[in-house]
Amino acid sequence: MDGTTFVRKEILAAQSPPTSEIGIGGWARENLFGSVFNSVMTVLSATAVVLFLAESLPWILQSSWTANSLSECRERISDRYGEGVHGACWSVIRERYLQMLFGFYPSELYWRPILTFVLLLGALSPVLFPSIPRILLVFSAVYPFVGYWLLWGGSIWGPFSIVAGFAIGIFAGQHVKYRIAMIAVLILSVYLCFRISGYLQTAAPVGIEPIESAQMGGFLLSVTIGTTGIVLSLPIGILLALGRTSDLLIVKAICVGFIEFIRGVPLITLLFVASTLLNLFMPPGTNFDLILRVVIMVTLFASAYMAEVIRGGLAALPRGQYEAADALGLDYWKSIRLVILPQALKISIPGIVSTFIGLFKDTTLVSIIGLLDPLGLSTSIRADSDWNGIVWELYGFVALMFFIFCFAMSRYSMYLERKLEISNH
Amino acid sequence: MAYVTEQSSRPFRLRMLIYDTRYRSLTIQICALAGLMLVIAWLISNTAQNLALLGKPVNFGFLSQPASYDINQSFIEYSSRSSHLRASVIGLMNTLLVAFLGCLLATAIGLVIGVLRLSRNWIVARLMTIYIEGFRNVPVLLWIVFYMAIIIEVLPSPREFRGDSPEASMLLWDSVAITNRGVYVPEPLFSNGLGDVSVFGIFAISLDLIAFLVVLGAGIYASQRVARWAGKVQESTGVRPATWHYSTALIVVPPVALLLALGFHPGFPELKGFNFQGGINMRNSLIALWLALACYTGAFIAEIVRAGIQSVSKGQSEAASSLGLRPTLSMRLVILPQALRVIIPPLISQYLNLTKNSSLAIAIGYMDVTGTLGGITLNQTGRELECILLLIVCFLCISLTVSAVLNWYNNLVKLKER
C-alpha cells in the first residue's frame, strides 16, 4: 500500500458545466429541442408565429388613419402601397373613438365622465392599496353620490342630502343604545333629508345640466354598470353566502332558492326581465330608468355567483376557527367580522376577482336589449353606409379595451394574493 | 347544561324573543319568512294590477295559435302555420344542438391547450398562455358577433363558386362547400330506406337512423360481453385472450352491413342557381355560435385541465411506475382517476355556462329558444310575462338536471375515507 495507489488528498474545484448545457444553446436544448416531438412542436409553432406576423404586421402598418369612409380608405391604401395591398382602416377608430368611449354624451360635457373616472381611481386607491392613508376612505364612501351626480347631472341637493342624512344618522346613532334603534335613526334621517332636498332645490337651485340615460353609451356605460355591479354584488354576495351556511333553516332555504334560481338562468333572460317585466312588478305608473333596471339585474346575477365563491371560502376554513371565535365569547356578527370573513375572503380572492371580470364582460349583453354599449355602437357603425364591411379594426379595438380592463383586474388579484401570502408569515 | 334549566324556570317575557338565544333564531326566521311573503305578495298584487290595466290577463292560450314565422333550422317538421309551442320546442332543440356540439369541441380544445400549456417547450407554453388569456379576457358576446362578421365578410359567397373560372372552389373533392351563408357537407341518403315513422302524430323519426343506432348499440353491448368473458378467462387462467379483433368486428361489421343493405350513398351539395342545393347545410349563425362558444369555453376548460393535472402529486406517478405499471396503464389507473375528481365538477359547470351562453344566439339570428320563444313569439304576441316565464323554466330545467347529474357523480367519486 505504499506509493502503488493514488490517493487524492485535496478536493477538486468544480468544473464549469459543458457548453451544451449553459447559455442560449443549453437553454434552447432544455426548452425547445429536448426530444424529437419537442423539436417538431417548436418548428411548427415558430412557423405559425412567423406566418401570423408576416400576415398581420403589414396589415397593421400599411394602414390609413385619415380616410372618412371604408371605400376612401381602401383607395388611399392602394394608392400609397400599391394595388392589392390589404391594410387596416384605423380611420374608423379615429373618427368614432369618442363615441365608443362616451356614447352620445354631449361633447362639451366630456369633462364630467372624465372627472368621474379620475375620481373613481382616487376612490378605489385606498380600497385597493393599503399604503394609501386611511382617511381617504371617507372620500370612497362619498364617491358613489359624487359620481352619480357628475354623470347624470341635475340638482346637487338630492345626492348631497342623502350624504348629509347618512352623516347625521351615523352621528346620532352613536348616542343610541340598541342596534335596531341605530338603524332606525339612520333610515329616518336619510329619509328626512331626502324629503328636504326638494325644498332646498326650490330655495337655492344649484345644479348642472341633467343628462338622459339614453345619451350614455360606449365604455362609459360598461364601466358604470360594471363598477356599480361590482361594488354592490360583493356585500350582497357575502350576506347570501352567510345565509346559505347559517343554521336558520328558513333563511337558508330562501338563500339557496335565490342563488340556484339566478345561477340556473342565463343573464340575458334576466335582462329581458329588466327591460320588459320589471316595470310590471312595480306599483302602476312607476317607470324607472332602464340603466338602473339593468344595474339591479346585473347586481343580483353577480351576487348569486359571488355567494357561491364566498361559500367556498367559508367551507374551506377549518372548523376550529369557528369554535375558537365562539370560545372567545364573540357573538355571531363579531365572530364573522373579526375572525371568519377576513380569512374566508382571503381564500376566495381568485374566485371573487374572476366573478368581477365575468360581470364586467357580461355588461356587453346590454347591447341585446338596445343599450348602446361598445358592441351596440359597433353594430350601428357597421350598419353605417360609410363603414359597411369593416370588421377587424372595430372589434379589435373593442376587444383590446376589454382585454386591458380584465387583464389588469386578474393581475391585481395575483398581486393581492402574493401580498397576503407574504404578510401571513 | 345546568344553566338552561335555571333559565327556563324564569317567566317568559316578550324581550326574550330577541335576547334569549333559544327564541332568537325562531324570531329571526319568522320575521324573514313574513318579510319574504310580504314582498312576494306586493310584487304579485302590483303585477295583477298592471296586467288588469293593460287588459291582458295571464293566458297561455297563445301557444296553440299559429306562429306564422319561419325557422331556418329545424329537426322536426315545421312550417309557418305550426303553433308557437312547436316553434319553442324547435328553438329548444336548436339550443341543445349547439350546446352539445359546443361542449364536444370545447372539451377537445381545452384538453389539447391545457396539456400543451404544461409543456416544457417554452414557445408552445407561451402560445397557449396567450390563447387562454386572450379568450378569457374578452366578452363571449364579442367573440360571437366577431366570428359571425368574419364569416359574412371574409368567406366567399355562393356566387363566387359559379362560372368557368370561379374565384372560390369546393374542398375535399367537391364534397364540402364553405360559403358565407354556411357550410354545406354531404348528407346520408338511402336508396331503399325504411322511411319515417310518426311518433304520436307529433313528429317524424327516420327509421334508418333508429335501425342504425340499434345495430350499433347491440354491437357495443356484444363487444362488452366479449371483454367481460376475456376478464373471466384472465382471472381463471392468468392469460388474457386477445379480443380486439372480435370487438372491432362486432362494432364495425353489422352497421356497415346495414348501411349497405339500406343502399347508403352520400348526397353531395351542388351549386344550382344562386345557392347550393342538397347536402346538409350548417348555417353561418350555427357555425359562428358553435366556434365562438367552443373557443371561449375551451380557454376556461384548459385552465381546469391544467389545475387537475397539477393537483396529482408527482409521488403518485412515481409510485405507479415503481409498481411496474407501464406509462399508459399508470395514466389510466392512477393519474386520471385522481385528476378527473378535480376536473369533472368545474368541467360540468363550464358545460352549463356554455349552454346558458348559447342564449346569446339571439344577437346573430340563430333560432334557439331565446330567439323563438323569447324573441319573435314574444314580440308577435306581446305576452312578455308568459314567454319569459316559460324561457326561465326551460333553462332552470336544463340547469337543475345537469346539477343533479353533477351531485350524483360527486357522490360516486367522493374519496371513501375510513
Write the layout of secondary structure elements.
The complex is a heterodimer of chains A (425) and B (418).
Chain A lengths: L22 H9 L4 H26 L8 H12 L9 H12 L8 H18 L8 H16 L1 E2 L1 H17 L5 H25 L3 E2 L9 H28 L3 H16 L2 H15 L8 H27 L2 H9 L4 H16 L1 H14 L11 H10 L8 H32 L2
Antiparallel strand pairs in A: 1-2
Chain B lengths: L1 H7 L7 H4 L1 H34 L29 H34 L4 H15 L3 H15 L22 E3 L2 E4 L1 E4 L5 E4 L3 E4 H31 L6 H19 L1 E4 L2 E3 L2 E3 L2 E4 H28 L2 H9 L4 H31 L11 H13 L2 H30 L5
Antiparallel strand pairs in B: 1-2, 2-9, 3-6, 4-5, 7-8
Helix pairs in contact in B: 4-5, 4-9, 4-12, 5-9, 6-9, 7-8, 9-11, 10-11, 11-13, 12-13
Structural summary, described in words:
Chain A is an all-alpha fold. Among the domains of chain A are: 31-61, no CATH class; 216-425, MetI-like fold. Chain A has helices spanning 23-31, 36-61, 70-81, 91-102, 111-128, 137-152, 157-173, 179-203, 218-245, 249-264, 267-281, 290-316, 319-327, 332-347, 349-362, 374-383, 392-423; strands spanning 154-155, 207-208. In chain A, strands 1-2 form a two-stranded antiparallel ribbon. The longest helix of chain A is centred in the C-terminal third of the chain and has 32 residues, at 392-423. By secondary structure, chain B is mainly alpha-helical. Among the domains of chain B are: 1-57; 190-262, no CATH class. Chain B has helices spanning 2-8, 16-19, 21-54, 84-117, 122-136, 140-154, 207-237, 244-262, 284-311, 314-322, 327-357, 369-381, 384-413, and strands spanning 177-179, 182-185, 187-190, 196-199, 203-206, 264-267, 270-272, 275-277, 280-283. In chain B, helix 4 (84-117) packs antiparallel against helix 5 (122-136) and helix 12 packs antiparallel against helix 13 (384-413). The longest helix of chain B has 34 residues, at 21-54. The model of chain B has no long low-confidence stretch (mean pLDDT 84). The chains are: A mainly alpha (425), B mainly alpha (418). Chains A and B meet through helix 2, helix 10, helix 11, helix 15 and helix 16 of A and helix 3, helix 5, helix 6, helix 12 and helix 13 of B.
